[in-house]
Every structure is written in C-alpha cells, then in structure tokens.
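Researcher: Go.
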Amino acid sequence: MMMTLMSRAWFQIRLAAARLFADSSGIAATEFAVIVPVMLVMFFGTVEFSSGVAVNRKVTLISRTLSDLTSQAATTTPGVWWAPVTDTYLQNVFTASIAILTPYVANPGTTMQLSEIYVDTSGVAKISWSKAATIGAGASQATLATSTRTAGDVVTSLVPSALLVHQTYLIFSEVNYVYIPVGIGYIMKANVTMTDVSYSRPRQVTCLVYNSHPNVNPSNTCPMT
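Model: Structure:
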C-alpha cells in the first residue's frame, strides 16, 4: 500500500514538472524584459552617434566658411594690392557660423579663430594677425575675443607642406566645438571636443590688413620679405 502511494506521489511530481517545463506562456514576457534594455541602449546610442556625426560635419563647414568669406575681402582702390578688414567685417564673418550650426545649440566651448599667415622667403610661416570669437546659446551675433595666437608666432608646423609657398599669404581658420551628448553617463561617458581647420588664399588681393598688420609699404603692396 505504501509503495503504491509513493509511486502515485512520484508520478504526480513528474507530471507537474513536465507540465511546468512545457508551459511557454511566460517566455515572451521574459524575452521582452531581457531584450528591451539592450534595444534602448542601441537606439539612443545610434541617435547620439548620428547627432555627433552631424555636428562634426557642421564644424567642418564652419571652418571652411570662415576662411572662404574672409579671403573674399577686396579693395575698391585701383593700384592697391591689399584689402582692409575691420572688427565689424570679422564679426559678420563669425556670425555666419550661427546659421550653419542650426539647429544645434552653441555652448561655452564653441570658439573660432581667424588668422592671416605669411610664408617668408625661407619658407617659415608666421602669424600676421589673428582674431577670435565665441557664440553662446541663443546668440544672434558672434562676440569678438582675443585670439590665442599673436603676430609673429611661428606656425610652420601647422601649415601643410603644399601650402608653404614662399612669399604668399594664407587665411587660417580654427573651430572648436564641445559636443555634449544628451545621454551622457548612460550612452556616452563624456563630452566630445570637435575641432577643424581650413586654409585659403586671399582671392582678390595679395594680403589682408587688420589693425595695421601687416604694415604695407608706400607702394601699396604687401610685405614680401
């Protein structure tokens, strides 16, 4: 009798276990709970990465636009081979970056610099003049600032060898943008600093003069020493 009861009990246990392992009603919910966090990380990571690529592209466009617009400065005086650039002119050039950056917002880490470089007869590149600017969030105009570069600084190592043409001038632009991810700490661990530079030559004159730099000679030509 006892053996019969034990056999029946063991049979019931095995039957319950079989039914338990055969029951798949909770598999979908379990898989969903496991997969959702991974999918969310992938989704927001893709969004952050795509935004970062878009911002980086805009940084490149800003650097090219700054050097290109500045190099277009021209003179209206016949026989003069240099063109003057003023704070107002440079501020307007820097302000163009706001439209390029839209719809992304500028931050305190957004800085820009424009410099004129002269390559002398020995192939040494030096800063002729330089000016910087910043743009804040919601700003409609760039704010001029003091550049980190000063007249006379040797920057030969910054200029590509193909552009080190003796007795020529270059317009050199630099852009620095700090990309702040929305998911910082979750998707991306820190801010990303994006930088780019661009070079162009004055298009309609030999050089551009800002605050009497370079000091043009009496024949209205740019220094070529």
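Model: The mean pLDDT is 85.
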